[in-house]
Model the fold of this input.
Amino acid sequence: MMGKKRWAGGLAIAVALAVSGCSGGRPPLNLGVTETGLAPCPSSPNCVSSWTDAADRRVEPLRYAGDAARARVRLLEVLGGMERVRIVRSDDDYIHAEFRSAVFGFVDDVEFHFNPPGVIQVRSASRSGYYDFGVNRARVETIRARFDASSDTR
Done:
């Protein structure tokens, strides 16, 4: 009996270490803006984007009126007010943020491209796994709601 408990405990520790060690992963090589915009979503259903026509992956871009620099500041404030986020890159027309899940530390890459004027294209994709249980879509909609609400104060 003691051997089985030890084996089960060892297996649980090994699984936890494997998951936590692999959960962050390296950033995909296709992040950033290319001549055609943000990267397309992979074939796995753990990505949403405003750059796609696929209904199951499509999200609307964020919209703003006025100056892009002010909209960028507003967006960075919204992101800064969210949990487990790290801004990886912030340029005049592009923002890359990493969101880490609370339990296993899985990383999702969220990108924003200010193009054309008045529009912020968005892409949110999980680095690992296959399904995301709607987390990326929900995150983008939360960001949109907070971004839109912040325009009332400007």
Observations:
- Helices lie at 2-22, 68-80, 135-150.
- Residues 8-22 have pLDDT under 50 and may be disordered.
